[in-house]
Amino acid sequence: ALHCIEAKVKDDTLYFKLAKHNAYQFSDKVYKTKKFNTYTIKSSNGQSEQRYAISTSIKIFDQIIETEFTLTDRSMMVSPVLIGRIVLKKFIVDSAKKNLSYKSTQSATRI
Question: CA 22, CA 10: separation in Å to the nearest integer?
């Protein structure tokens, strides 16, 4: 799921805005796509909601992964992005560590 503050469909095109979230660097730019789906998602508290989903690619370490993200208001959550277990099944996840992909990129570019 991606932190989205606004999403609407007009003429078969989804327009959406990814908001700034605390210290994370999301812009207030409006994005658009004709490739989207709509799903009914049930949250952990049992409530269901309709969400738009977009296809995009993400980079984790040196791997580019094509995946789908739903758009929702994550302003009350710790992180603006939630990456699902299906995407992460290719990796060993150590929850005691953070920002390893970012750190490996930084150390690789130092001279």
Answer: 30
